[in-house]
Design brief:
Elements lengths: L1 E3 L3 E3 L12 H11 L2 E7 H14 L7 H12 L1 E5 L11 E4 L3 H10 L4 E4 L3 H9 L5 E7 L7 E2 L8 E8 L5 E7 L2
Parallel strand pairs: 1-7, 3-4, 3-6, 4-5
Antiparallel strand pairs: 2-8, 7-10, 9-10
Helix pairs in contact: 1-3, 2-3
């Protein structure tokens, strides 16, 4: 999840134009998406991803990242936390709208690789409330935005720093494991 230095994941109206992403960060993240077979989203992020990634790699001017991530996105199982999408049938997509802790714990027990979540602050807040996040990968952008959607809400956990990576852009990735 991208976060400003002052702890916000988006502006008051969902603005993310302050987030810095480049090939160096795409390559770094690609190493982790390759290890995941399930992607977890909130409704808004899922709709944004679904509107772009299925065909992004097919465009004539597609970047290497667009091709790679589009291929991964089309193959991965998607889980969406949403009350408003319940009952919808989407390919390779499971909608969770109630009993989130039980359904996610069941999902975590299934055979497979890692579950990865992109953005989705509302879904992240729900997961934090139920202590369902095992690791945090925070991409701290060197910017102060002053107001917006906070990263941490309804969260209480002890974290252990596993690694940190500084990128040439000034973005720092902090990888934490939840230990209590």
């Amino acid at each position: 999840m991208h976060v400003s230095l002052d702890g916000f994941v988006a502006g008051l109206n969902g603005e993310m134009n302050w987030i810095h992403v480049d090939e160096e960060i795409f390559d770094f993240v690609g190493n982790y998406t390759d290890e995941a077979d399930t992607a977890l989203y909130g409704r808004a992020t899922y709709e944004m991803m679904e509107s772009y990634w299925p065909t992004a790699g097919d465009k004539p001017n597609a970047s290497r990242h667009d091709v790679e991530h589009s291929t991964w996105y089309k193959g991965v199982q998607k889980v969406v936390i949403s009350d408003t999408m319940r009952g919808q049938d989407k390919p390779k997509t499971k909608i969770i709208g109630e009993d989130i802790p039980a359904q996610l714990n069941e999902l975590k027990q299934q055979q497979g690789s890692n579950i990865i979540m992109f953005g989705s602050p509302g879904a992240a807040h729900s997961l934090m409330k139920y202590n369902l996040i095992d690791e945090y990968w925070l991409f701290v952008n060197p910017v102060l935005i002053q107001w917006g959607i906070p990263l941490f809400k309804n969260a209480k956990a002890k974290l252990k720093l596993i690694s940190n990576t500084a990128f040439s852009s000034g973005v720092i990735c902090l990888h934490y494991q939840v230990v209590g």
